[in-house]
Amino acid sequence: MQSRRKLSTHASAVARHVTSDGCQFVIERAGVAAGQCFSFVVDDYPPVRGTVRWVVKDRIGFAFDRPISRDAQAAMLRRSRVVQGLELLLV
Questions:
Q1: DSSP for residue 7
Q2: What's the confidence (pLDDT) of residue 2?
Q3: pTM above 0.85, yes or no
Protein backbone atom coordinates (compact mmCIF):
# COMPACT_ATOMS: atom_id res chain seq x y z
CA MET A 1 0.00 0.00 0.00
CA GLN A 2 1.45 3.30 -1.08
CA SER A 3 1.26 6.12 1.45
CA ARG A 4 0.41 9.62 0.37
CA ARG A 5 2.21 12.51 1.91
CA LYS A 6 0.23 15.60 2.71
CA LEU A 7 0.97 18.46 0.35
CA SER A 8 1.08 21.97 1.76
CA THR A 9 1.09 25.34 0.07
CA HIS A 10 4.60 26.41 -0.83
CA ALA A 11 3.87 29.71 -2.58
CA SER A 12 1.02 31.81 -3.90
CA ALA A 13 1.28 32.69 -7.57
CA VAL A 14 -0.45 34.77 -10.22
CA ALA A 15 -0.34 33.32 -13.74
CA ARG A 16 0.79 35.36 -16.74
CA HIS A 17 1.44 34.43 -20.37
CA VAL A 18 -0.42 31.11 -20.13
CA THR A 19 -0.11 28.62 -23.00
CA SER A 20 -1.04 24.95 -23.25
CA ASP A 21 2.55 23.99 -22.33
CA GLY A 22 3.38 26.41 -19.52
CA CYS A 23 3.21 29.89 -18.09
CA GLN A 24 5.00 32.57 -16.19
CA PHE A 25 4.10 32.91 -12.51
CA VAL A 26 4.58 35.97 -10.38
CA ILE A 27 5.24 34.58 -6.91
CA GLU A 28 5.16 36.15 -3.48
CA ARG A 29 7.75 33.93 -1.82
CA ALA A 30 11.46 33.64 -2.31
CA GLY A 31 13.15 30.28 -2.27
CA VAL A 32 11.63 28.78 -5.40
CA ALA A 33 14.36 27.22 -7.54
CA ALA A 34 14.71 25.91 -11.06
CA GLY A 35 14.03 22.18 -11.16
CA GLN A 36 11.42 22.17 -8.37
CA CYS A 37 8.15 20.41 -9.17
CA PHE A 38 4.78 21.85 -8.18
CA SER A 39 1.12 21.10 -8.70
CA PHE A 40 -1.95 23.29 -8.54
CA VAL A 41 -5.68 23.06 -9.11
CA VAL A 42 -7.79 25.49 -11.09
CA ASP A 43 -11.52 25.34 -10.45
CA ASP A 44 -12.93 21.93 -11.47
CA TYR A 45 -10.12 21.02 -13.88
CA PRO A 46 -7.72 18.13 -13.20
CA PRO A 47 -4.63 19.01 -11.14
CA VAL A 48 -1.74 20.44 -13.15
CA ARG A 49 1.83 19.34 -12.44
CA GLY A 50 4.99 20.85 -13.78
CA THR A 51 8.55 22.01 -13.26
CA VAL A 52 10.14 25.39 -12.64
CA ARG A 53 12.44 26.07 -15.61
CA TRP A 54 13.83 29.49 -14.63
CA VAL A 55 13.63 32.07 -11.83
CA VAL A 56 14.19 35.85 -12.16
CA LYS A 57 13.38 37.86 -9.03
CA ASP A 58 9.66 37.27 -8.32
CA ARG A 59 8.91 35.55 -11.65
CA ILE A 60 9.27 31.93 -12.64
CA GLY A 61 8.95 30.05 -15.92
CA PHE A 62 6.80 26.97 -15.35
CA ALA A 63 6.52 24.05 -17.81
CA PHE A 64 3.45 21.80 -17.47
CA ASP A 65 4.04 18.04 -17.48
CA ARG A 66 1.11 17.70 -19.93
CA PRO A 67 -0.59 20.29 -22.13
CA ILE A 68 -3.70 21.86 -20.63
CA SER A 69 -6.90 22.75 -22.46
CA ARG A 70 -7.85 26.22 -23.66
CA ASP A 71 -10.63 26.24 -21.08
CA ALA A 72 -8.15 25.53 -18.26
CA GLN A 73 -5.85 28.26 -19.63
CA ALA A 74 -8.73 30.75 -19.58
CA ALA A 75 -9.66 29.69 -16.03
CA MET A 76 -6.06 30.31 -14.88
CA LEU A 77 -6.10 33.80 -16.36
CA ARG A 78 -9.53 34.60 -14.91
CA ARG A 79 -8.38 33.54 -11.47
CA SER A 80 -5.22 35.60 -11.79
CA ARG A 81 -7.07 38.72 -12.90
CA VAL A 82 -9.00 38.88 -9.66
CA VAL A 83 -5.71 38.55 -7.74
CA GLN A 84 -7.00 35.32 -6.27
CA GLY A 85 -4.06 33.51 -7.79
CA LEU A 86 -3.16 29.87 -7.35
CA GLU A 87 -1.55 27.92 -4.55
CA LEU A 88 1.59 26.03 -5.69
CA LEU A 89 2.14 22.74 -3.89
CA LEU A 90 5.64 21.28 -3.74
CA VAL A 91 5.59 17.67 -5.00
A1: P
A2: 45
A3: no
